[in-house]
Design a protein that fits this description.
Blueprint lengths: L10 H10 L16 H13 L4 E5 L5 H7 L5 E6 L2 H10 L5 E3 L12 E4 L8 H12 L5 E7 L33 E4 L6 E7 L8
Parallel strand pairs: 1-2, 1-4, 2-3, 4-5
Antiparallel strand pairs: 5-7, 6-7
Length: about 210
């Protein structure tokens, strides 16, 4: 059963992202199965290497490519998405997936081995990026696997408007200056975008 989490939803953030992420959008507007084939294999290898047996998928979206990954690995899965419409879709299309309405910047995370954050943070401004990281550091989750791009030369901040928010993120540059990740799952080959793995022991206090 999906662990029920205290909901402290940022309603303005929910309204913004619910306008961009709806079940009416097609799969090709997200990640197709073929586009994530390499990444899925690398993630499976990383999970096995680091003995990841349970995860919370923050920003689970439509669960299409994630469900393909879960067919090929034994792992306890929970997910959350800020879009209530998307969660309702997933609960109908993939009733075996434990997914609930959840704001990764404010709501508590369940106790699992790994927090999985693909793409979510690149749509958040720096204030909300910091909230997400500190929310993880306040949790009992030892690992975070999050989108990271070593080829991004500077991190850009932005304000929320009616435009789709996006800024590629290199967590090892200002204003973050994080240590080297423990490991990474490359998206399209070595270099560029990856899912990078950090452990709470690499951080001292809040970010």
């Amino acid at each position: 059963m999906c662990q029920q989490l205290l909901n402290n939803m940022n309603l303005e953030l929910q309204k913004l992202f619910q306008s961009f992420y709806t079940p009416s959008q097609t799969q090709t507007e997200y990640d197709s199965i073929s586009d994530t084939a390499n990444l899925r294999q690398r993630i499976i290898e990383l999970f096995k290497k680091h003995s990841i047996a349970s995860m919370f998928d923050a920003g689970s979206n439509d669960c299409i490519w994630m469900s393909e990954l879960l067919r090929n690995i034994e792992i306890k899965y929970q997910g959350g998405d800020i879009s209530a419409d998307m969660v309702a879709y997933v609960n109908t299309a993939f009733p075996e997936r434990l997914v609930q309405v959840h704001d990764a910047t404010t709501d508590a995370f369940p106790t699992v081995d790994l927090l999985f954050v693909r793409d979510v943070a690149i749509h958040l401004n720096n204030v909300d990026k910091r909230r997400l990281w500190n929310n993880w550091l306040d949790s009992n989750i030892p690992w975070i696997l999050i989108t990271h791009n070593r080829e991004t030369l500077s991190n850009q901040d932005f304000g929320y408007t009616n435009e789709f928010p996006f800024a590629s993120c290199n967590w090892q540059l200002e204003p973050w200056c994080f240590p080297d990740p423990v490991d990474q799952a490359w998206e399209y080959g070595v270099g560029g975008r990856c899912m990078a793995l950090w452990n709470q022991n690499q951080f001292k206090g809040k970010i």
